[in-house]
Amino acid sequence: MSTHVKPNIFVSACIEYESCRFDGSMIADDYVKRMKDVVNFIRVCPELSIGLGAPREAVRLVKRKGEDQKLLSSVHGYDYTEKMDTFTEKYLEKLYRRDVDGFLMKAKSPTCGVGDVKVYRDVGKAHLESARNDGMFGGAIKAKFPDHPIETERRISNYNIRENFFTHVFTMAAFRHMKDDFKYKDLVEFHAKNKYLYMSYNQEILKKMGQIVANHDKLSHDEVLDAYQKHLRKLLHGEPSQKRRVNTLQHLYGYFKDKLDTPEKEYFFDTLDDYIDHKIPYSNVLYLLRGYAVRFKEDYLLKQTVFQPFPKELTVMMDSGNKL
Ligand code: SF4
Questions:
Q1: pTM
Q2: Does 191 lie in the same domain as 141?
Q3: Residues with CB under 6 A from ligand 1
Q4: Which stretch of DSSP H or E encloses residue 177?
């Protein structure tokens, strides 16, 4: 049973929940299925919400010469732009008050998509204007929640993207939970247990966050939390490079270097080399170090989130093999 705080994640309703796509289908997605037990999903289908049925005529984004971009039905050209605008504005206002930690959108949808949506020059058989746009609803989410992690079900089929997304939403959910009934010592504890996770992302921001927690400028609690949250988001929007991860592993190893015998030390460095040579994943080296932490009763290390930043139930090694 996971002890992680459940993040609130918005998901396009057609992924694993409702048969609301234009052809009356639902998208089965193994990762979203796994997430159901460990996150709180908030879901909606914007196209059903503006009164369209399922099945229905597909919609598309259209940019005709000299006109604003519109959301039109693909064959008959019925215009849903205004309805979608009105729905989106009202819905996102409500969503803003619900402490959402991240978004999982349907890839390529002219409504929900982000960054991979086609825009056509007209309805029917028409040329493409461009193919890397946001859907109407997806684009509005990006504008309203610029600091939140926003991914598609297609992108999280990639191992690294998925790992970063999970780490981001579960860390932010834990931070939100800590803020709810705030006592200063909770922030000190939160920072301490995330130290090596932060180190694997960005050592400079980790240092800055340490200074914020130390609060030499005697800021109010709200100011400290605001500054900390801003830096936490900045840090989590980055990616842990292999160089930073190796540095983190070497810091963790430092706790045991005087306690291990020579063959154990050699085994650690062989394992580290295997990771550097891309023969084994990062988690293998972490497992080895966690074993040492158990053996030598390093309680401070055993609390480190770097060993399990999100629930084990979500750990799946394989990529889908889809091209992104
Ligand atoms: S992509 Fe969005 S609008 Fe389209 S069916 Fe899915 S939830 Fe509905």
A1: 0.94
A2: no
A3: 12-14, 20-21, 45-47, 106, 109, 111-112
A4: helix 159-180
